[in-house]
Structures are given as C-alpha cells and as structure tokens.
Amino acid sequence: MAYKLPVSVLVVVHTPDLEVLLLERADRPGFWQSVTGSQNEGETLAETAVRELKEETGHDAGRYRLVDWNRQNRYEIYQRWRNRYAPGVTHNTEHVFGLLVPRALEVTLEPREHLRCEWLPWRQAAEKVFSWSNAEAIRNLPRRAGQGAEKP
Question: Which domains does the chain have, with CATH numbers?
C-alpha cells in the first residue's frame, strides 16, 4: 500500500464578490470543505493545488489566479483517516492557496470524493465547513482579496 504524505493543500475557490465554492465529502455526508488534497511524491505544493482543483472540480487553475497564501496549518489527522498514512503518522501540514474565478462556475464532481457543491457567501461558507483551518482561511478571504478586514 502506498501511504499518503502528511502534507496537503487547501484551495479556497472564490469569486470577486467573495462567494466560496464548497464540496460535500462522499465519505462523510454533511462534511463540507474547500478543495483539498495530499501532496504526491515529487510534486510542488502549487502542482498539488492545480491537480486537486482539476480532480475535484474539472477546472484548470491555469485559467485563473492561483495564489499561495504562505499560510500553513498543522493539525491532528482524524482517527478514521489515519490508516491512509504510514504507521505512526498522526499530524498533517496543510498549505493554503486561493483561486480567484470570475463568477460561480459549474463544477464537475468526482463522485467517489464529493456528493454535491455549493457557492455560498464567505460568512456562510466559513460557518458550514467542518474544518477549523478551512473556516479560518475563509474568514481571512476579505483581507486576502484586498477588501480590508471585515468582521463576521
């Protein structure tokens, strides 16, 4: 078995008016998230972000503005998913990216990974995601998008 690396990307896909794309996990219905995925051996973080975006939405990041937010989060891997990692691996380091798209785009889901998608205003999206790091990234979106630090 090839184990996943404990390094991943989180890509907050958003429109200029700060609508955020969320995906519902197929393996955990009711768990919503941004585009995420583990780095493959030999990939740069940007390559991982581009690959995951294509796999999870059908979109080519090269057509839009992908930005490395230079933000990292370290968190404990949920027990239910630890079997995907080498024995003894308990934590993951997540690298955050943003992807600006011109409008809420249609998405082609990978049905083994996601059940549904939604575009939501950033505040609602931050409330809906299950991951604290995903919520934090979305709450930082107004500042990242150059619209000032808006309070939720």
Answer: 7-144 (3.90.79.10)
